[in-house]
Amino acid sequence: MTDHGPSIGWPQSFPFSCGPAALGSVLTSLGWSPAGPRVEEEIEIWRESTAVACPGAHPLGLALAAERRGFRAVVRTSGPSPWLWHHIRTRHSPLPRAAYRRIEDDLFRRCQHRGIPVETSVEPPSPGEVGLLLTTARRTGGETPDPHWIALIPREGTLQVVDPLRRVPRRSARPLSDWWSDSGFEGTRSWISFQAPPPEDDRSSRTPPQEGHDHHHHHGGEHRHLVGSAWTAEDAVRILESPERRRTQDPKVLWRRIGLRPGEVVVDVGAGTGFFAVEAARQVGPGGRVYAVDLSPELIEHLRSRRDAEHLPQITPLLSTRSEIPVPPSVADVVLLANVLHDVPDTTVAEAVRLLKPDGRFVNVDWKKEGPPEGPPRSVRLSPEEAEARLRTHGLVPVDRWEFGPWHYALLLRRPASRRSRRTGTKP
């Protein structure tokens, strides 16, 4: 039996789901170091792996959550219908059965897209596998079993059993095949095995697959090219809306610093999921407008859904190109480029400046050269001085510069007002 080294027990922090805590134990045993506090990572995994509003995490969702962190997963069930379908159908029914079927179909599709094997087999897992097993060890008093995820990690000739409800992992001399047979879900046993990436695989533990190298980046904590299928809306939300990013690049702090006011017009170039645009919409209110511009049709659709869900009709999502932003000239009080200047051509910058009113504000947020290895390569990052010099060539005048969290800086520039406006004192 393979020894996977010392395992880190990950007790369950919240009663809503055991799957994220069990997955945390498995991944840490394989060498994963969470980027943020453990509790926040557990919440993030729960959000990713829970397909619907129910107590449990879906096996396919857990496999996808592990894959996003750089680990390889294989899902095995002993029957064609994973446990979630049966369990929710019999115990939880906030949605029609057809809706759950669509949810599972979508999970299967995403696993197929990511190359995650989903197997149906009555054979037990191999003795050396490390993974998660769905058991019926916990019950709520009724006849229907209550599913519960545990981690089984080979170590020193035995299995280390990490039950999220227990504070201390325990050892078991029983083989993995016995645990599989006795899991309690006859016909729908579920097992997910995991492997750490090989040393030559340098994927980030939080980075989706990269496709293409000729598109500008969107707002984000990672250096990714987002266009069409290169990064799904799901991937973008996971990274661009992460709690860590909100701590280090708080949109409220940015808009407060530049003095965004009710009734103003904002253009967010490379809006992504709306990380900055949504807060801008709240600040400008119903009398203002926020044009959320992006290259990705999928993210534009996401922005429309988010606008409707959050009741912010002042947001206008717009699909753009690198050389054309479909917004009339001189309409914006504020134009924002966040984490994209280092990777966009001058045509994009010129388009962004074209949208500004005379005396309008241009805001640039970007990575510090001395920042962390995550994000764009340091060789392409622009220092504040380099960014200012580039923006000056487009007629902008620097006004302010400040540290924006530990890894970024922000620049405020203005488009000079016309001579006529200065003489008359009228607002163009």
Helix and strand sequence: HHHEHHEEEEEHEHHHEHEHEEHEHEEH
Strand content: 15-25%
Quickly give the structural class.
Answer: alpha/beta
Mean pLDDT: 78
Provide structural commentary:
31% of the residues lie in helices and 21% in strands. With 428 residues, it is of the alpha/beta class. The protein has 2 domains: 19-195, Cathepsin B, Chain A (Alpha-Beta Complex), CATH 3.90.70; 228-424, Vaccinia Virus protein VP39 (Rossmann fold, 3-Layer(aba) Sandwich), CATH 3.40.50.150. It has a 7-stranded mixed sheet with strand order 2-1-7-3-4-5-6. A 7-stranded mixed sheet has the order 10-9-8-11-12-14-13, with helices on both faces. Helix 1 packs across helix 2 (38-49). The longest helix has 18 residues, at 97-114.
Observed structural traits:
7-stranded mixed sheet; 14 strands; elongated; Rossmann fold; 428 residues; Cathepsin B, Chain A; alpha/beta; disordered C terminus; single chain; 21% strand; 2 domains
Please describe the topology of this protein.
Blueprint: H1 19-29, H2 38-49, H3 59-68, E1 72-77, H4 83-91, H5 97-114, E2 118-120, E3 130-138, E4 146-155, E5 158-162, E6 170-172, H6 176-181, E7 190-195, H7 233-240, H8 243-248, H9 251-258, E8 265-269, H10 277-284, E9 289-294, H11 297-309, E10 315-319, E11 332-338, H12 346-354, E12 356-367, H13 384-392, E13 397-404, E14 408-414, H14 419-424
Parallel strand pairs: 1-2, 8-9, 8-11, 9-10, 11-12
Antiparallel strand pairs: 1-7, 3-4, 3-7, 4-5, 5-6, 12-14, 13-14
Helix pairs in contact: 1-2, 3-5
Concise structural overview:
The protein has 428 residues and is of the alpha/beta class. The protein has helices spanning 19-29, 38-49, 59-68, 83-91, 97-114, 176-181, 233-240, 243-248, 251-258, 277-284, 297-309, 346-354, 384-392, 419-424; strands spanning 72-77, 118-120, 130-138, 146-155, 158-162, 170-172, 190-195, 265-269, 289-294, 315-319, 332-338, 356-367, 397-404, 408-414.
